[in-house]
Amino acid sequence: MGNKYVQNRELKNAECLTYMLHYLLRDGGYYGKNPDVSPTLDPFTMTMIKDAPRQDNGGDCGVYALKFIEYMSSEENPSFGPQDIMFFRKKYAVDLYFNKLSM
User: Fold this and answer.
1) Residues 6 or more apart from 61 whose CB is under 8 A from it?
2) Orientation angle between helical segments 61-73 and 85-97, nearest 10 degrees
3) Where does the chain have alpha helices with state H?
């Protein structure tokens, strides 16, 4: 299966991210919380997803990233757009307030 890094548009010099992700996972405590996953320095592979939802402004990238991760982790096709972002922002705020976010 290997490691995978997904992006929805081409980035210049993105290859460095395939190496950096291991350090971010390590420093973020991922390997400590998941002892069944062995840390490795093998680079992630990159996959471009051309039909992924895209933001239409400069401030919604975090919400898009979170929702994209949610959809992909549940193996659903991401089907949201700019018209849905305000609802997602409000839902995240309520979930945070009532401590209902699960990680």
Assistant:
1) 55
2) 80
3) 15-27, 30-33, 61-73, 85-97
> Can you tell me the distance from the alpha carbon of 22 to that of 31, in angstroms, rounded to the nearest whole number?
9
CA-to-CA distance for 2 and 43, rounded, in angstroms? Answer: 9
Q: What is the pLDDT of residues 12-27, one digit of tens each?
A: 667 788 888 888 888 9
Based on the domain organization, do 71 and 84 belong to the same domain?
A: yes
- Which of 16, 34, 50 is the C-terminal boundary of a domain? 50
Q: What is the pTM of this model?
A: 0.60
Over its C-alpha atoms, the chain yields an Rg (Å, rounded) of: 16
Q: Which domain holds residue 15?
A: 1-50
Helix, coil or strand: residue 45: strand
How far apart are alpha carbons 55 and 89 in whole angstroms? 14
Does 16 share its domain with 30? yes
Q: In the chain, how many domains are there? A: 2
